[in-house]
Write a structure and sequence with these properties.
With about 260 residues, the protein is mostly helical. It has a domain at about 15-160 and about 200-235. The chain is about 60% helix and about 0% strand. The chain is built from seven helices and no strands. It has helices at about 5-40, 45-55, 60-70, 75-100, 100-120, 135-150, 200-235. It is elongated and about 90 Å long. Mean pLDDT is about 75; it is low at about 155-195.
């Protein structure tokens, strides 16, 4: 019995799992790089904020009221966390797809960059097409990283996949004797080949470097965007209204607007 036949499903599951991990790392890198680029454009152009704003604009009023009642001022935070959760699932799926079809998975990452770019440029406060840069640059980096990481997985094929490999059940003809048949009835098990092209240490190092680089980019982007927000608050506090040149007359006693549902 060829042991490699039973090993094939395990190799397939292993490749899909590592592909899903690669997709997760690619998605993380795309969001982190987009966050960093948005600091150079404007914080609101980031894909998560832009897609969240577009989703709010298209949400029925009843759903908005329900979210405000249940989450209060944290409704936008909950929405952004929901978007990140959806992106996580999609990144895992695209990574698994890329494990089988590398180009298709990478193109899928680019497609989500297009969605983020359209959401950013269609916002009412969008100033120019430069708002699409965070989503586009992030998607390109994520797609390239996914393509590269999947390439590090190699081919994951074994001895039975080699050209000209003979199966133990192959028909060799009546009375035929295999060249490598054991002598004297002794049984032997041929050593199985290692997964060709699979460099475990290389993949781990590549994945670790990608995660570290993405974390650094994301933290830098958050810090820069946070400093811009603090500067905006400080600038508003610096505004001092001038004293009026003349005081307004006092409101006469008993004055009322006489408008329904407005108290005097």
């Amino acid at each position: 019995m060829n042991l490699d036949v039973r090993a094939k499903p395990r190799r397939g599951i292993k490749r899909l799992s590592l592909g899903a991990l690669s997709g997760l790392l690619a998605g993380y890198a795309a969001i982190a790089v987009a966050e960093l680029v948005s600091a150079a454009v404007r914080p609101e152009s980031g894909p998560v904020i832009a897609v969240g704003g577009a989703a709010i604009d298209r949400t029925p009023p009843g759903v908005k009221d329900w979210a405000i009642r249940h989450f209060g001022t944290n409704d936008k935070l909950v929405l952004q966390l929901g978007i990140l959760a959806v992106l996580t699932v999609l990144a895992l799926v695209l990574g698994a797809v890329a494990a089988r079809w590398r180009v298709i998975g990478s193109v899928g990452v680019l497609a989500f960059g297009v969605v983020g770019a359209l959401a950013a440029t269609s916002r009412p406060d969008s100033t120019s097409v430069s708002d699409a840069l965070p989503s586009v640059v992030g998607a390109v980096v994520g797609a390239a990283l996914l393509y590269w990481l999947i390439g590090r997985l190699g081919t994951f094929h074994g001895a039975a996949d080699e050209p000209g490999e003979r199966s133990g059940t192959a028909d060799t003809g009546a009375g035929a004797v295999a060249d490598d048949a054991p002598v004297g009835g002794a049984t032997s098990v041929a050593p199985q080949k290692q997964d060709s092209g699979w460099d475990r240490r290389g993949f781990i190092l590549a994945a670790t470097a990608a995660a570290a680089g993405s974390t650094g980019a994301g933290l830098a982007g958050r810090a820069l965007n946070g400093s811009q927000g603090q500067n905006a608050v400080a600038s508003r506090k610096d505004i001092v209204l001038p004293a009026p040149s003349s005081r307004a007359a006092a409101v006469p006693k008993g004055a009322a607007l006489r408008i329904k549902d407005i108290s005097p």
